[in-house]
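Dear colleagues,

For the upcoming journal club I promised to circulate an example of a predicted protein-ligand complex. I picked one with serine because it came up in last month's discussion. The inputs are reproduced below in full, followed by the predicted structure.
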Amino acid sequence: MEKILVIGCSGQIGSELTLELRKLYGNANVIATDIRPAPDEIAGTGKFEILDVLDTSKLQLILEHEKITQVYHLAAILSGNAEKRPLASWDINMRSLINVLELGRELKLKRIFWPSSIAVFGPTTPRYNTPQYTIMEPNTVYGISKLAGERWIEYYFNKYGVDTRSLRYPGLISYKTEAGGGTTDYAVEIFYHAIKTGKYECFLGPKSDLPMMFMCDAIKATIDLMEADSSKLSLRSSYNVAGICFNPEQIADEIRKHIPGFEITYKPDFRQAIADSWPACIDDSVAKKDWGLNYEFDLPKMTEVMIDEIRKKLTVS
Ligand code: NAD
Ligand code: SER
């Protein structure tokens, strides 16, 4: 019987992943935690506890008391916000991971998921069809923390046999919870502005190609990786995940098919330099070969669902 701990359950990914895990493993077997309150759907369907993941003693207490077997560690400060508070973000991103890995080793946890990001790549990385193994010289504090994190999870696997698993998520697009302060957040915000006002001023330029992925595909990939047979995994750093590649101009064109007259203007800010340092599209053939990564959503299908669901959500509220 698996008993799962989600750290960072109130964020963009955690708010959906927790519910999916509860569907699969049972409400009582998925304990949700975050430093801030949980959405009603999570607090109302199972156990939720306030936890600062930097509080090692409380984390250990929960792991032991709940007899946790698997951890999904999602708490982090994302790229845009991390540039505003570099040292504090480094501290949260790195110290939290080391806490989880150390307790994973001591308590012999069965499996740990920790997400990496396309931010591990940098301006010297090939931007198109970015290989799994390539030059990695990230120049953001977030990217540096994710690359260091990849080295640590691989180290804990090789040195201590901790079963660590990870995906390099592209920008994630979803309608349930706000995006958490990243560079790819424009691709979520744009839908709300298009529906509410018919206009959006984008903080990236029109041709900023980036890899993106619809949340349903991201959740499925995460759980597929966590359920994959260990012997199939040829790497313990983090798997490239490509998703869909598009830029602000292309998503605006797709939105116009549903909201004719939608206007986008461009006012790039500090996040433009971050986007320019990341890949445009990446090669995920290793994940496909090892454990069968696959996707359901392309740009048109994702746009249709985003618009329908956000319209429903705004009507209800
Ligand atoms: P988010 O910012 O929406 O959620 C992160 C959650 O962590 C928040 O609810 C926050 O309250 C919580 N948190 C922050 N500090 C904490 C602490 N000290 N203790 C406990 N909880 C704390 O982020 P997200 O988009 O859900 O991302 C989750 C993970 O996935 C992160 O590691 C992120 O780097 C990674 N990721 C996300 C994306 C994306 O596009 N969303 C892409 C690549 C990687
Ligand atoms: N979506 C994330 C960000 O922009 C990528 O890791 O920070």
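Two points we might discuss: The first strand starts at residue 4 and ends at 7. Residues 11 and 56 are 21 Å apart (CA to CA).

See you all on Thursday,
B. R.
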